[in-house]
Amino acid sequence: MNNGVIFLDFKAFDMIVEKLSPALLAQEFEAPQPYEVENGKAVVFTSGNLAYGVFYDLKTKRFDLKSTTMEEGKEPKWRSLSTWMFDPDTDTTGDAESIANDFLETVEGPKRVELVRQNKKRTKKEDGTLNADPQFLFNRLMGIFPDLRDEMAEERIHYGRIRFFTFAKEKIAPKVENLAHHYSESDAFTKLCSILNDMYANADMDARSVITMAILNQIDDAAYEKIREHLSEDLGKVYKFGRGLKDKKIKPEKKKKPGKKVVASSLNERR
Question: Strands 79-85, 33-34: parallel, antiparallel or unpaired by DSSP?
Fold first, then answer.
């Protein structure tokens, strides 16, 4: 096989990986890493012990999207999720685009997203809450607001991370408000309220603050009234209190004059 053919193979490969990356990064997978194979090229995305791999075999001229659950000290057993033939001598960029779209639909499918969610290790903390952070909340909300996937990817590109409170206030709260205004009888609205209740009950303090102050406290009164009817007792009580602080300026506590400190003399002063 000549060098030109190999170049075309890997060009299509890179395009497919580039298309998959934002979706998997939004699901908290690590950036793709090279993976050693005998005849071709491969990369893997990992999240905990779950991994997706994009493989291209130069000999069979085939793309594979695979998944595996990794175990320490054991060779991963890859399972193929989608397979496409791709011959760089005859196939086009459009064919590679079709493969990329199919792989993307696979990893964003409801069953695959739920599998990733269930695979997350969420151990209980001392206070009894689960280790579910704002990122976990955003991933669940992505099932209702698909645009969050691209918006989270853009946030990471511009800031190197997701600014959880600011992102929720600027990107999520307007979507929640619009859904409450126009689709309060929809399944999506019911699911939204269910997610907020579940996450508030089982999330860490950061995620709880995002729910109450960065999302619910940013919506207008009309949307508030529609959502309030669906909130759990715990979230409803906290939300009612937080709502009372909406648009109010909280004066900072006055600094107290420092009291006298008893400081031990240094060794130098004693000498």
Answer: unpaired
